[in-house]
Design a protein that fits this description.
The protein has helices at residues 2-21, 44-54, 87-90, 98-106, 108-111, 124-136. The protein has 140 residues and is an all-alpha fold. The chain has one domain (2-28, 44-136): Cytochrome Bc1 Complex, Chain D, domain 2. α1 (2-21) runs antiparallel to α2, α2 packs across α6 (124-136) and α4 packs across α6 (124-136). The longest helix is centred in the N-terminal third of the chain and has 20 residues, at 2-21. The chain is globular and about 35 Å long. The chain binds heme C. Heme C is lined by residues 8, 11-12, 15, 53-54, 56-58, 65-67, 72, 77-78, 80, 85-86, 88-89, 96, 101, 104-105, 115-117, 119, 121, 130.
Length: 140
């Protein structure tokens, strides 16, 4: 378990570094209050670029450190048959939609205590863009 956890944290750091390069802050550091940024509808093309950070652990069509994502929007959480989810996510009773995915990406452990995904996206627009991309990969 430890090894898997360490590997997970290592890829999480790599993914965080990617997002930092993309100008997205995921660190929960105190920052001077930014002017209230309005979140607009998700941009799937930008979401696809941001998905490279998720790709440290996920892909659309293959299970990896995390489960594959094709069809995730509208799917019950923890329902890919050949992926070894945490019991917490498998039993969460969540169905993934825009609202639940947004809460998940804000902080997976807050939505599902005991989950084994440790990766957050602080930027609301980046979350909207990622969700738009996942939605696009769910509708075809
Ligand atoms: C450090 C590795 C890691 C990174 C980076 C990561 N995830 Fe995950 N993700 C996981 C793991 C592990 C799980 C399974 C969690 C569980 O079983 O508790 C998971 C589960 C999920 C699920 C639930 C899927 C299902 O079938 O129920 C979604 C949605 C998800 N991740 C989205 C994302 C998105 C979007 C990103 C990029 C912003 C991302 N993840 C980045 C490791 C990661």
């Amino acid at each position: 378990m430890d090894t898997i956890d360490c590997a997970g944290r290592r890829v999480a750091r790599a993914a965080a570094a990617f997002l930092a390069l993309a100008g997205i802050s995921i660190a929960a550091v105190a920052q001077p209050a930014a002017p209230a940024a309005k979140t607009s509808a998700g941009d799937a093309a930008h979401g696809k670029a941001l998905y490279q950070a998720c790709a440290a652990c996920h892909s659309i069509d293959e299970n990896d450190v995390g489960p594959k994502h094709r069809g995730v929007v509208g799917r019950r959480a923890g329902s890919i048959a050949d992926y070894a989810y945490s019991p917490a996510l498998r039993r969460s009773g969540i169905t993934w939609d825009e609202a639940t995915l947004d809460r998940w990406l804000v902080n997976p452990s807050a939505l599902v205590p005991g989950t084994k995904m440790f990766f957050k996206i602080d930027d609301a627009q980046a979350r909207a863009d990622l969700i738009a991309y996942l939605k696009q990969q769910s509708s075809r």
